[in-house]
Design goal:
Largest sheet: 5 strands, parallel
Number of helices: 2
Strand content: 25-35%
Structural class: mainly beta
Helix content: under 10%
Length: 195
């Protein structure tokens, strides 16, 4: 990132009012990099986003519905280590380039990272159990590193870019026996990860 990139590191609790302000900084002030690794998402505060589907507020330990959707200036984010779920379209149409899903996360919801034109590398934490339809639909992902030794359950249109999917060598056969090996769900499986 260039030297003039605006960055923020946030510790402690974040409610809807805080998220709403972060969205304004990203959209209006070009905040491009956010480190939330030592923060916690908590219920309360203002509605941070609204559209035809409704108004959205924060919930404890969740990256909520549309939380950073349409924030195209957002290029880099470190997610809170405490979250367990990333909701529907939370990062749809952002400018993020690389993504690491923390180990506490077990569920990635519909279209969470869809239409991210700059997203190339994804690291999926070891405890992800389920990935709903189109999590990375129409994103330009090239490489996915999956640290879950048991293949997470997949729904359709997961990786439409057909990336290389790196899994543990010892787990390759298990992945090949699931939808991860189906080209309409994933990409090319490679068993090259080691402990």
């Amino acid at each position: 990132m260039p030297c003039d990139t605006i960055r923020a590191k946030i510790n402690g609790p974040l409610n809807g009012t805080d998220v709403k302000y972060l969205r304004e900084l990203i959209i209006e002030r070009n905040l491009a990099s956010i480190d939330l690794s030592n923060s916690q998402i908590v219920s309360g505060g203002d509605v941070y986003y609204q559209n035809d589907e409704g108004e959205f507020a924060t919930k404890d330990n969740e990256i909520g519905f549309y939380m950073f959707a349409e924030c195209r200036n957002l290029k880099e984010i470190k997610l809170p280590l405490s979250i367990a779920k990333i909701e529907k379209r939370a990062f749809q149409r952002t400018g993020i380039t690389n993504l690491e899903i923390p180990e506490n996360i077990t569920l990635l919801c519909y279209g969470a990272f869809s239409n991210c034109d700059s997203l190339e590398t994804v690291i999926i934490g070891k405890n992800v159990e389920k990935m709903n339809q189109g999590v990375f639909y129409s994103s330009k992902v090239k490489n996915v590193y999956v640290y879950a030794k048991t293949p997470p359950t997949l729904a359709a249109y997961m990786f439409t870019s057909k990336p290389e999917i790196h899994v543990y060598a010892e787990s390759l056969e298990a992945y090949q026996a699931t939808k991860w090996a189906d080209s309409s769900y994933g990409g090319t499986l490679i068993g090259d990860l080691t402990d």
